[in-house]
Design a protein that fits this description.
Keywords: Isomerase, Metal-binding. By secondary structure, the chain is of the alpha/beta class. It has one domain: TIM Barrel (Alpha-Beta Barrel), CATH 3.20.20.70. The chain is built from 7 helices and 8 strands; from the N terminus they run βαβαβαβαββαβαβα. Helix 4 (98-107) links the parallel strand 4 and strand 5 (111-116). Helix 3 (73-83) runs parallel beside helix 4 (98-107). The mean pLDDT is 89.
């Protein structure tokens, strides 16, 4: 089954920047908006809550991916779904019963994804993949801005793609961290379907021509994979 390459913009958490970030997503024809939510425990950063997602939901019709980098996602899943998340991504490494959390999210009519930290091996996610709509593979430590792309994580992406094809599954393979015009082609060849790009990637001086060249690289990489 063909999986077209999608672009997702990872926006910041400043509410005053939301209109600008949404406009940027629309100008560059992003397929979705990605938001990282942190609790100060699972990762050191402390960020936003469901109210931010609700505000974002009121300002755009684009699908919203909410990536919960929190210790107990099952406690807060309902709040984020009710706030407007279209895809809720929880971590393999968090403190929760993963199967119950997946069922909880699906029970609210929301799509569910599972995220893997860079050091978590792909094989740990296998027993959940038939129930998921997305597998998010982090190729840098969090926060992505402060860490370099780790090429050795491409093998994890490839394993996910091969497992999906072998078992006729349909989950999307999302990749976040260290993505640039230089690393996108190898990431797509490995099997990524959704590239989660930092908002700064879509900088104001990014011309239509340079974006076209990047998208061309994506198409060529996809065909080569």
């Amino acid at each position: 089954m063909a999986h077209p390459i999608r672009l997702s913009i990872n926006i910041g958490i400043n509410p005053f920047q939301l209109p600008k970030e949404i406009k940027k997503a629309e100008i560059f024809n992003c397929d979705s908006i990605h938001v990282d939510v942190t609790d100060g425990h699972f990762v050191p950063n402390l960020s936003i809550g469901p109210d931010f997602i609700a505000a974002l939901r009121s300002m755009t019709n684009l699908p919203i991916e909410v990536h919960l980098l929190i210790q107990q996602p099952d406690r807060f899943a309902r709040d984020f779904v009710e706030a407007g998340a279209d895809l809720l991504i929880v971590h393999m490494e968090s403190h929760h019963d993963i199967k119950k959390t997946i069922n909880l999210i699906h029970g609210m009519g929301c799509r569910c994804g599972l995220a893997l930290n860079p050091l978590t091996i792909f094989e740990k996610s296998i027993k959940y993949l038939s129930q998921l709509q997305a597998l998010l593979i982090l190729v840098t430590n969090f926060p992505p801005k402060s860490h370099a792309f780790q090429p050795d994580k491409l093998s994890k992406i490839k394993k996910a793609r091969e497992f999906r094809e072998k078992n006729n599954l349909n989950f999307q393979i999302l990749v976040e961290g260290g993505l640039s015009a230089q690393t996108i082609p190898s990431t797509v060849i490995a099997g990524a379907n959704t590239l989660i790009l930092d908002s700064s990637f879509f900088k104001e001086d990014l011309s239509v021509q340079s974006l076209s060249e990047i998208l061309k690289d994506i198409d060529e990489a996809s065909a080569g994979g």
